[in-house]
From TrEMBL:
Listed PANTHER family: DNA REPAIR PROTEIN RECO (PTHR33991)
Gene Ontology biological process terms, A to Z: DNA recombination; double-strand break repair
Family: Belongs to the RecO family.
Domain DNA replication/recombination mediator RecO N-terminal, residue spans: 7-77
Protein name, UniProt field: DNA repair protein RecO
Organism of origin: Levilactobacillus suantsaii
């Protein structure tokens, strides 16, 4: 098997115990896509790279990266940790969910420089204290095509009109203009703000986002919409999402009025 000793940039997606002294780590690398690394002796006292392989670390490394199979790190060049995420259970939960979605959405060993950049930026925004629920919504919406669901958000899925109020229809796979609402009795009855953000987020460049402010009722409606689409059309519900759901039950500050409060 060909070995490539090479520089790479990586976002640590997760790490797992492996044998008594070792870790398995999954990196989303800029150059090679997602790769699993065996870190031998990582749990031994005095291991040199302990700080370089903590959760929520990004950095540049040198490693052996074969086309298939396990990779190995030789040295870490420069690494940093998203400390804001590491220190806050809410940020942590959203960031973990984003990384698990990206892990499920794409096969390993496929270079995805654009997505590497997007995940990096999403983590950076969450780390800085921007609303993690909304950053997560942006990633969820933009990941839909990778899961084989590409909603029609440009105009009405039936007639293409863009000048009437919209609602969202799962059976038509996108927006319906008011004239065609009758075509789907099970349309989702979304408010105009939710529709607005759904459309905006699908094309949003996270690099250009510096401050996010969305009304709590809209945030709640977006969460419900994502849950509906991910449950019924995508069928992906990672353990990290179950944790997020539980967390929302514990946390009164996340409890928000129901979506139908949205009236403008
Ligand atoms: Zn229409």
């Amino acid at each position: 098997m060909a070995q490539h000793v090479t520089d790479f940039h990586g976002i640590l997606l997760y790490r797992r115990d492996y044998a008594e002294r070792d870790f398995l780590i999954k990196f989303f690398t800029l150059e090679f896509g997602k790769k699993i690394f065996l870190i031998r002796g990582a749990k031994k006292r005095g291991f040199k790279m302990t700080a370089d392989i903590l959760p929520f670390t990004v950095g540049s490394y040198v490693g052996d990266i074969p086309d298939q199979g396990l990779s190995y790190i030789r040295t870490a060049r420069e690494t940093t940790q998203f400390q804001g995420i590491g220190a806050d259970i809410f940020k942590n939960a959203y960031a973990t969910y984003i990384m698990s979605l990206v892990d499920i959405a794409f096969p390993d060993s496929q270079p995805l420089p654009d997505w590497y950049h997007r995940v990096y930026r999403a983590l950076e925004l969450i780390d800085e204290g921007q609303n993690p629920a909304i950053v997560t919504n942006v990633i969820e919406i933009q990941l839909m095509p990778a899961f084989g669901v590409a909603p029609q958000l440009q105009g009405c899925a039936i007639c293409g009109r863009t000048d009437l109020p919209f609602d969202y229809s799962e059976s038509y796979g996108g927006l319906l203009c008011q004239q065609h609402w009758s075509a789907d009795p099970r349309r989702l009855h979304l408010g105009p703000r939710t529709i607005y953000y759904l459309r905006q987020f699908s094309i949003l460049d996270l690099d250009r986002v510096h401050h996010i402010k969305v009304k709590p009722s809209t945030e709640h409606a977006l969460r419900q919409l994502m849950d509906e689409i991910y449950a019924s059309q995508i069928g992906v519900h990672p353990r990290s999402k179950r944790f997020l759901d539980q967390m929302q039950d514990w946390a009164p500050r996340l409890k928000t009025p129901p979506a139908h409060d949205e009236d403008d």
